[in-house]
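Lecture notes, part 5. Sequence design as translation. It can be helpful to think of inverse folding as translation between two languages: the language of shapes and the language of residues. The source text, in C-alpha cells, appears below.
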C-alpha cells in the first residue's frame, strides 16, 4: 500500500516539522528572564533618579525609557503555552489559565512604558515621575498575580 505509506510518511514529516518549529520551553524561559533582567538593568537607575537617590539626568533617563518601551514589546512572544516548565521559572500556571487577563496586564505595561518614554522625551521631571509611578504599578499588578515570590 504505497499510498498509505506515503501518507503516513507525510504525516510524520509534518509532525516533525511542527515539533522543530515550537521553541524549546527552556529557551523561552531563558528568553523572558533575560528580557526582565534587561528591563531591571535600566529600570533600577531610573527609580533612583525618580527617588532622588541619584542626580536626575534627563538624557540618561530618556535613553533608558526608550529601551524599556522597546523591551516591553519583546515580551509579547515570551509566554507561549507550555512554557511554565523545563527550567527554573517563577511564572505561575495562572498565566495560561487566564490568558486574557494576563495579556491585558502585559498590554497595560506596554502602554505605560510608551507613555513613560514620551514623557521622558519632554524632560519634564514632574511628568516623568508621575509616569514612572504608573509604569511601576503595572509591574506590580502583574507580579502579584502571575509571578511566584
Ligand atoms: C504581564 C506581566 C508582567 C509585567 C507587566 C512585568 N513582569 Fe516582571 N515578571 C513576570 C513574570 C511572570 C516573571 C517570572 C518569569 C520567569 O521566571 O519565567 C517576571 C520576572 C521578573 C524579574 C526576574 C527575572 C529573572 O529571572 O532574573 C524581574 C527583575 C522583573 N520581572 C522585573 C519587572 C519590572 C521592573 C517590570 C516593570 C517595569 C515588570 N517586571 C513587569 C511578569 C511581569
Amino acid at each position: 500500500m504505497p499510498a498509505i505509506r506515503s501518507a503516513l510518511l507525510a504525516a510524520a514529516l509534518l509532525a516533525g516539522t511542527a515539533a522543530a518549529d515550537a521553541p524549546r520551553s527552556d529557551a523561552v524561559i531563558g528568553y523572558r528572564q533575560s528580557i526582565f533582567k534587561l528591563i531591571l538593568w535600566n529600570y533600577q537607575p531610573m527609580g533612583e533618579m525618580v527617588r532622588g537617590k541619584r542626580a536626575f539626568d534627563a538624557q540618561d533617563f530618556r535613553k533608558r525609557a526608550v529601551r524599556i518601551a522597546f523591551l516591553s514589546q519583546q515580551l509579547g512572544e515570551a509566554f507561549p503555552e507550555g512554557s511554565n516548565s523545563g527550567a527554573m521559572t517563577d511564572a505561575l500556571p495562572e498565566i495560561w489559565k487566564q490568558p486574557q487577563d494576563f495579556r491585558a496586564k502585559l498590554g497595560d505595561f506596554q502602554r505605560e512604558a510608551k507613555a513613560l518614554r514620551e514623557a521622558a522625551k519632554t524632560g519634564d521631571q514632574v511628568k516623568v515621575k508621575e509616569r514612572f509611578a504608573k509604569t511601576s504599578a503595572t509591574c506590580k499588578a502583574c507580579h502579584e498575580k502571575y509571578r511566584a515570590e
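The translated text above is only one of many valid answers, since several sequences can fold into similar shapes. Residues 12-18 have pLDDT under 50 and may be disordered.
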